[in-house]
């Protein structure tokens, strides 16, 4: 009978990488077998080896790399503007209940509206390219950052706030010295979630708008030519790899910057 007081041992980092590699290999093998078995026409589902070879080949294609750069530029601009808007707004709504109550109905009205539904209107009002993509990315990326900031403020230790208040610190000083540092791990998680949403919006907007440049436009144009499925899937692989790299970098940065928060949570549980 196992000792129930012994905490479960987690996987080491090489173990996690090995397990992830096994999952990727299994998916690759299943896709390769399915593509070569003839169950589905190869023009619709090429073997994984063909898609991978084309994705590697695109790495040397200057036109394709230009499209990737356009998408990443829109992603970065949209995410940075969303952070600049959502963090201060979240601090305001989380710190001042009267303002939160006043704008709550507007926020709850706007939040469910999908950004893709705004693409036709944005195209008419803002044209094409970054001028249309960036506002849509900002709109979709603001929500996870805003609500994570507000949630982080609710998780601040009230004793620490009361202590500073007792010593005569102002509301702004308490916010900067206690509330903001305590909420920072939650804000970082919101930014990580928003980064994925921003990439989805960048690629999706380019595909649905039907004009301009970008990775999404490359995928959309490839889908209109005969035997373009390999290019469509190779572009999709690139989008997935970019998203994986972004998420991995942000997770590593989050773990390093807020190691104390993880230890605090583990101790609390």
UniProtKB/TrEMBL annotation:
ABC transmembrane type-1 domain residues: 68-250
InterPro entries documented for this protein: MetI-like (IPR000515), MetI-like_sf (IPR035906)
Compartment annotation: Cell membrane
TM segment ranges: 21-39, 74-97, 232-251
UniProt membrane topology term: Multi-pass membrane protein
Superkingdom per UniProt: Bacteria
Sorted UniProt keywords: Cell membrane, Membrane, Transmembrane, Transmembrane helix, Transport
Keyword Cell membrane: yes
Family membership noted in the UniProt record: Belongs to the binding-protein-dependent transport system permease family.
Protein name in the entry: NitT/TauT family transport system permease protein
Natural source organism: Actinomadura algeriensis
């Amino acid at each position: 009978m196992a000792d129930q007081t012994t905490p479960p041992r987690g996987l080491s980092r090489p173990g996690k990488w090995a397990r992830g590699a096994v999952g990727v290999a299994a998916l690759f093998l299943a896709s390769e077998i399915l593509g070569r078995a003839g169950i589905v026409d190869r023009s619709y589902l090429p073997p994984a080896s063909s898609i991978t070879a084309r994705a590697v080949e695109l790495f040397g294609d200057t036109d394709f790399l230009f499209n990737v750069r356009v998408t990443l530029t829109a992603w970065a601009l949209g995410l940075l503007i969303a952070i600049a808007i959502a963090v201060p707004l979240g601090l305001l709504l989380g710190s001042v209940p009267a303002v939160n109550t006043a704008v709550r109905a507007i926020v709850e009205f706007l939040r469910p509206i999908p950004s893709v539904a705004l693409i036709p209107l944005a195209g008419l009002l803002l044209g094409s390219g970054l001028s249309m993509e960036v506002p849509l990315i900002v709109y979709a990326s603001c929500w996870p950052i805003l609500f994570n900031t507000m949630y982080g403020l609710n998780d601040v230790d009230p004793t620490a706030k009361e202590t500073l208040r007792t010593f005569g610190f102002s509301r702004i000083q308490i916010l900067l010295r206690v509330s903001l540092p305590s909420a920072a791990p939650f804000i970082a998680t919101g930014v990580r979630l928003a980064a994925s949403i921003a990439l989805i919006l960048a690629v999706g907007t380019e595909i649905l708008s039907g004009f301009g440049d970008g990775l999404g436009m490359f995928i959309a144009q490839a889908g209109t030519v005969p035997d373009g499925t390999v290019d469509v899937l190779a572009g999709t692989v690139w989008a997935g790899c970019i998203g994986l790299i972004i998420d991995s970098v942000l997770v590593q940065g989050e773990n390093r910057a807020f190691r104390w928060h993880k230890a605090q949570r583990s101790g609390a549980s």
